[in-house]
Write a structure and sequence with these properties.
217 residues, four-stranded mixed β-sheet
Length: 217
């Protein structure tokens, strides 16, 4: 009986401590914890660098709305911009690297070049999000095969855990994130597919190999 009473008191004490901690959290801290829970579900035990990312708070955004070109703001007016970050986009044909911005709104993801919107992906049509299990910052956004889309989007992000977490929370598609090993397939367009290969090496690099594949070291 004393053991049962002791266990009950311990549970009550722990519940009270948890309640007190939760009530003392700021709104900003709650958002951080909610995002980190999603990051854990997606990446824990799957991708290199995850443990190191735990101590790094996510920023609300890497660039502010007024950092965007006024023409871009005009084109996406009416949509609530949630997150903006610089990225490197790799062409689906030839894999040339191009500096871009990834703009996440309440309803869509935009790949932006200066004053132009290069691609818009509505979250409702987003088919998948893929990253590798290694420490690279590559993310592939998979889109449906239709006339509206040129093909899947290949991006390199400096803050990969933050960016993917923001994207899957806004799209409400945590379940479509895949952490792959070795290689992944992506859609080039017009029914064609390409292959991306992930490997280890002495220094990070991304290049088109002799077989025409995109190799990420």
């Amino acid at each position: 009986f004393l053991m049962q009473t002791s266990e009950m008191l311990q549970k009550i004490c722990m519940r009270n401590l948890v309640r007190k901690y939760c009530r003392g959290l700021t709104a900003e801290r709650k958002v951080q914890l909610q995002q980190k829970v999603v990051t854990s579900a997606v990446f824990s035990g799957k991708k290199e660098g995850y443990l190191e990312s735990l101590s790094q708070p996510f920023l609300d955004t890497r660039l502010k709305e007024n950092d965007l070109n006024p023409k871009v703001l005009q084109l996406i007016r009416g949509e609530n911009i949630k997150y903006v970050t610089p990225v490197v986009k790799y062409d689906r044909n030839g894999f040339k690297a191009r500096e871009r911005l990834l703009v996440l709104t309440q309803s869509s993801a935009y790949v932006v070049e200066m004053a132009k919107i290069k691609q818009k992906i509505e979250y409702s049509t987003l088919k998948g999000i893929s990253t590798s299990n290694l420490s690279d910052g590559i993310v592939v956004i998979h889109v449906p095969e239709d006339n509206k889309q040129k093909g899947d989007v290949i991006l390199q992000c400096e803050h990969i855990f933050e960016t993917v977490t923001k994207l899957c929370i806004l799209a409400n598609k945590q379940s479509v994130v895949k952490v792959v090993k070795g290689s992944l397939r992506f859609r080039v367009g017009s029914g064609k597919e390409g292959t991306m290969v992930f490997t280890l090496g002495p220094e990070p690099q991304v290049f088109k190999d002799k077989t025409g594949q995109l190799t990420v070291v």
